[in-house]
Specification:
It is elongated, with a radius of gyration of 38 Å. The chain contains eight helices and four strands; from the N terminus they run E-E-H-H-H-E-E-H-H-H-H-H. Helix content is 41%, strand content 7%. It starts with a strand and ends with a helix. Helix 3 packs antiparallel against helix 4. 5% of the residues are buried.
Length: 206
């Protein structure tokens, strides 16, 4: 069904109705809380746009609630007028009558309209209304993780290549007058000062 959202015209200040958009909030079925309670045996119906995250159990609880209507078991008190028995509802007696039945709707793609299938589709829609931007947030998160991973790889490659000379650079401190004895071979490394010893050992081996 198409629903219409009431808006107040900016120029004239009169209330107008236009076709609802997907970005609009779902309009309230009642004008105020008093009318809502009168229509629901004194119970104030919750905001269904957040019902999926407002109840413990989330989708599992809603599925059990929508499909869990039963006859009153022996020994239990009969529900009051306008109430129904549901073991998954806190207090067992709920002011909402059973809404879903087998073959109560028709699917265009030929799906068999079992009660469980209808309840699943309704719960998926309620999950979307609670987090309408979840897909976009997930996509942004994946992009952020991929960008961070690319930056880490690039930083590692740059550190191993560009900074390798700086990281492996060695500074030798020498006593004034003995610097030539360390650098006389023209190679400055950790083994320069042992060059004479290495040469002597090599001559002995010959």
């Amino acid at each position: 069904k198409q629903w219409y959202q009431r808006r107040v015209a900016i120029t004239a200040g009169n209330a107008i109705e236009r076709q609802g958009d997907i970005q609009d909030f779902m309009p309230a079925p009642y004008d105020n809380e008093i009318k809502a309670r009168l229509a629901n045996n004194g119970a104030h119906p919750p905001d269904l746009t957040l019902i999926n995250v407002a109840r413990e159990g989330n989708e599992d609880y809603l599925f059990s609630l929508l499909t869990g209507y039963e006859d009153v078991p022996p020994g239990q008190a009969e529900p009051a007028e306008g109430q129904a028995y549901n073991p998954y509802f806190h207090g067992y007696y709920i002011g909402m009558a059973q809404q879903l039945y087998n073959e109560s709707v028709d699917y265009e793609d030929g799906t068999i309209p079992y009660q469980s299938q209808i309840a699943k589709d309704i719960i998926q829609y309620l999950a979307w209304t609670a987090h309408p931007w979840m897909d976009e947030m997930s996509m942004y998160g994946m992009k952020a993780v991929a960008s961070a991973a690319a930056l880490v790889i690039i930083s590692y490659i740059a550190m191993r290549t560009r900074r390798n000379g700086i990281r492996s650079r060695q500074i030798h401190f020498t006593v004034p007058g003995h610097d030539k004895s360390i650098t006389k071979n023209g190679v400055v490394n950790n083994f320069t000062k042992y060059k004479e010893v290495d040469d002597s050992i090599a001559k002995m081996k010959r």
